[in-house]
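Exercise: predict the structure of this protein bound to T4K.
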Amino acid sequence: MRFKDINDKSDLAINGAPPAFSEALHVGKPNVYNRSGFLSRVEEILDSNWLTNDGPMVQELEQKIADRLNVKHCVAMCNGTTALEVAIRALGLTGEVIVPAWTFVATAHALYWQGITPVFADIDPLTHNLDPASVKKMINPRTSGIIGVHLWGRASPIDELQEIADKYRIKLFFDAAHAFDSVYKGEKIGRFGECEVFSFHATKAFNTMEGGAITTDDDKLAEIIRLMRNFGFSGYDNVIYPGINGKMTEVSAAMGLANLSCFDSIIEHNYNIYNSYRLELFDINGIELLSYKNKESNFHYIVVEVKENCSVSRDVIVSALHAENILARKYFWPGVHNMHPYNKMLDTPRCNLLETDKLSNKIIVLPNGAGVTELDVKLICSVIRMLVNE
Ligand code: T4K
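Solution:
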């Protein structure tokens, strides 16, 4: 086994031969399950001469997602970040909005692009989701909302956050980018808060290449979001809203429909791979796999915590995995509050993000998805085992 600096990408080869990226075992490898289903839908699109702008495939996808998640409205979007921005705008958020710093940077960037200050609250180290007590501390007269993130597909403390939002009369919605098909108290994620925002990026359990959606039970909100997605047009030549272009293309919707037709198999595969990791990792000292409750997640993210008692650091493990062409990630190190521009915004109110900072130095995300086999899991875990036991 060779060890090297994680930032040195000059020599990712095993045995001297530079491998194609597709040969690497990496986090984020897209799930492409139903290739023929996708291709035949693409033929249909080309024959129809209708490529985008609320086409039939987008409408079919929206209906199927709404049915699956048991929510009244699903509005398909071009990506999750634009969907977040549209939700922020449609809900009329202003001033400050509370978010976790332990998330992908897009959650905060969407606020920033809408001229709103993201205020970071700390997380519960056991769930990795917002700690309601920390959220409460950050509320002031400028606070107009909270964005909870269902990190790794595990539901936020929805009831507690809703209670806070109701008490202070502020808006609550969810960044559900990781949580397609996840469950909270027996109900699918999709109808909590004012609305929920999904990402269908190539790296997600359910993907439309690029894409996303906003789901809600609120008729009025759904109508505004639909207007905003299409420049604010209400019929030909009649603009009644300052909208943007947030539309999903027909090809993306075709990918979504193909993937949706076998999404149960995708989840089953993820679940089996997660269980293989569980078996392989459980006796490695100082390595703890983040657990999922049965049937409450899409099991897409394999998240490992390197505890204080581990003989090697998180960074040493990640470097060693990279040297073996296993491209694990340190998501979401170093935390959004330590990224530009938030680290420079001296007037950004911050509470003490003690748990976020501690956790951010300990987490590794390992590969999962259609491209990962049980044999791959054995290989990945044997690298970790050798390092820790050395
Ligand atoms: N909120 C949350 C909580 C999110 O996690 C995200 C996105 C968003 C909001 C915003 O949603 P979108 O606007 O993206 O729809 C990746 C994804 O680009 C991003 O969508 C995702 N979260 C985030 C967790 O992961 P990066 O910066 O890590 O991407 P990158 O290019 O390093 O790729 C990740 C891995 O996937 C690499 O190992 C390569 C592999 N990959 C990637 C693509 C695109 C492939 O194997 N094939 C591919 O086609 O952000």
